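Supplementary notes for students who missed Thursday's class. We covered one full example, reproduced here. Read the sequence, then the structure, then the short commentary at the end.
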Amino acid sequence: ATREALLRACAAADIIFVGDYHTLAAAQRVPIQLIRALSDRGRRRWTLALEMLQVEDQTAANRYMAGEIDDEGFLRAIDYENAWGFPWPNFRRLFAFARETGARVIGINCNPKLRENSLEQRDICAAMAIAMEAKSHPDRKILVLDGDLHVALTHLPTRTAHMLHDMGIRRRWVIVYQNSETIHWRLVEQGRERETGIVRLGPREFCLQTTHPIAKYQSFLNWLEFEEELRPSMRGVLADEDDEEDAPRQVQRFVDTIRRTLEIRGDFTDFTVYTIGDLHYLDDLRDVHVYTNEEIDLVFIQILKGESHFLPEGNLIYLANLTVNHAAEEAAHYINAKLSGPAPAVDSPLDDFYQRTMREVLGFFGSKIINPQRLAYLDADFEGIARELHRRRVDVQRRDLRKITRHVLRHLEIERGVLRGKRRPPSRLPREQFREFSVYLGIVHALGYRLGTLLYAAFEKERIGTGEVRDLFSQPWREPGSAQAAYFGLLRRLQGPPPPEQAAERL
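Structure (token representation):
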């Protein structure tokens, strides 16, 4: 459907039900964008009816909207973390918008103690709240933001319609679903997923397709792991003036921030960003950027593992996850490649290993400039993982983690010996370390992230200077053994020789 068809249907409705995926920031932006898009199609005022707010919390919500309590007081009053707990900044935007435009905000959820995990119970509570709002404020249009399941045609919309009918009230309504995976893959089969952002499902039903379904589910995993997501972009569907940054623009902002922090000059704009929604990525590698089939196979392994990556030939950034950490790390890889020049061809597995590891050191360091709270596994963590995985049977993914951990601990033991002056850096590495590319990359990432954490801590405490870090970003490590020498040299610089019996400590 066209944007005009959607807006015309919403303009004619008294109640708009919008489906919400609670961890997806793009989902909470749709009510704002809809209301803004409808602002020139009538002078009626608005009510935002939110599932995140309980009916019992209306007094606290009114005080918050009136400016009588601040964010902290409001969240404490409604017991936000226990009663809801999804990313507050995404929902805070709704309250700020309502305050800015004079919209009312009402809660439609029932007390958790009364829900008994019943979808029907919560629908009854929400329908009653919506019906009472329609009765007491007949001049207002109501936009309901409720979970995907709640706004299904035979659930909350139909129940609300029946309650209004019993109260002798007639209201027109429309449903706007969001990001159906079923619809997405049907559009993919037709080759229309990139051109179709709005689909009409029935006389009163539309669906906005603004986000790849994998990205939607990743937002839930990111929430569980406290990963901050990139700002969502909805251009071409319901864009507004508050939506100025897509993924490439945000990556550019990270590039500029890292560059300014390290006092790097020059033009750093010649990169291309692909995301998980770009199903043509592998085709482009073959047809546009002329990668070999063997190289594409290695890229495919990284995609299957959900790993973002940077390809220097063409300056290509692929974001397997739309988070700040992924984007910032690849921005740092891009800067590293621009400063150091083309990656040298290597014949030695040892050189390949330490070149890759040093690049991960710098990538993780750059991501810490953007997100200083980003964590990596350190010595004690690997030892704990090894103990945990040794005790029980593991699946394929954890089997890889066990292999990675075993090799990392072996390398850490080598490092301790080198730092104590009892052994030299290795002249070769175990062959099994190179047998599985995904395991090999896991070892590289683990060691690189660990040393990147140490590097950032030293940089933050001014124990290592901007010029020294900038010099690391500029090193091509073309000479045999130079990357390994850089790794152990940096290790000595950051850690020094540990006492013989010192336990691993977390920074």
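Commentary. The longest strand covers residues 45-54. The mean pLDDT is 90. If anything here is unclear, bring it to office hours.
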